[in-house]
Design goal:
With 305 residues, this protein is α+β, with helices and mostly antiparallel strands. Helix content is 37%, strand content 20%. It contains nine helices and nine strands.
Length: 305
């Protein structure tokens, strides 16, 4: 009976924290504080503060501040709003205070960040909770035990048309291919047409010899993209993908893949689908290694019991 009560309590706190997160994400312009939100989810401020931090890895104030800063970066990159307007909308009293906070977090001024060719300014969140105009509201995951685990989200993705340069053989050849691809993108001014930047691995099955494995340095593009540049093309099929987050440089991604497949996959109730590709979906570019964020995506199908 006690076990059932503990389970019900855990589910109830998940529900309350999820409600609080959705409230925060829908009210970034409002002067919210954790006491106000705790009242809205019918919890005492003390218990709400403790549970929110336990399940998300940060307190309400830090979460709200980070989401506003990510939104500010989005507006800098994708709107013509001036820095003063963005600063005030982000909860800062003056553009000077905003610029100081922005530079402390990103190491760049807002004007410098605005000139970067490809970067979305995502900041670390152990719950995968980030600002996005288009991301579904429930794109986050709560950690029920408060431990450091490889957290994973099962997500349905639509087909993606990608263009890029193909690498055949060992994956260590990809950095050279990426250098060539970036030269082409810069030469033809194609960064603005990149919906997503990614490395794609169609031949991740163990049975395929290393020397025959294909991979791509690529970008996702719209269906009407005019590929007049001789780039290789590939379509990532739709379907369910398991997604986890890697923070750090691309040189450290390999061990993260290995750990994820060893720790999460065997007992997950899912199995890898070799008919569709693995891919690394890069969320920022041109930032210090400790701020680089990558979604690792592997195709999965449900294990039939």
């Amino acid at each position: 009976m006690r076990g059932v009560m503990r389970t019900n309590t855990k589910i109830d706190w998940h529900r309350r924290v999820e409600e609080a997160i959705l409230r925060i994400m829908g009210a970034l312009d409002e002067p919210l504080n954790f006491r106000q939100i705790s009242q809205e989810v019918h919890a005492s401020p003390y218990h709400f503060h403790r549970k929110f931090r336990e399940l998300t890895g940060e307190n309400v104030h830090a979460c709200l501040k980070r989401l506003r800063m990510e939104r500010a970066m989005h507006f800098l990159r994708h709107s013509s709003a001036d820095v003063t307007t963005i600063a005030l909308d982000s909860g800062y009293e003056t553009p000077e205070a905003f610029t100081k906070a922005f530079k402390r977090i990103y190491g760049l001024t807002p004007s410098e960040a605005r000139r970067l060719p490809f970067w979305n300014g995502v900041l670390h969140s152990s719950a995968g909770l980030h600002y996005s105009e288009h991301r579904p509201a429930y794109w986050f995951y709560l950690n029920p035990e408060g431990v450091n685990i490889m957290q994973t989200k099962i997500t349905a993705f639509a087909p993606k048309r990608i263009v890029g340069l193909r690498n055949v053989g060992d994956y260590w050849g990809l950095p050279r291919v990426w250098e060539q691809f970036h030269q082409i993108l810069g030469q033809h001014g194609l960064y603005a047409q990149a919906k997503e930047m990614m490395s794609v691995f169609p031949d991740h099955a163990d049975a395929i010899p290393v020397e025959d494995k294909m991979s791509y340095a690529a970008m996702a593009v719209s269906p009407d993209f005019d590929n007049r540049y001789g780039l290789d093309e590939y379509t990532i099929p739709e379907g369910l993908y398991a997604v986890t987050v890697h923070f750090g440089s691309s040189e450290e991604i390999g061990p993260t893949w290995d750990r994820w497949m060893q720790e999460w996959l065997p007992d997950s109730g899912w199995r890898a689908d070799p008919s569709r590709p693995n891919y690394e979906w890069y969320q920022n570019h041109g930032v210090p290694p400790e701020l680089q964020l990558t979604f690792l995506c592997t195709p999965v199908v449900k294990v039939q019991v």
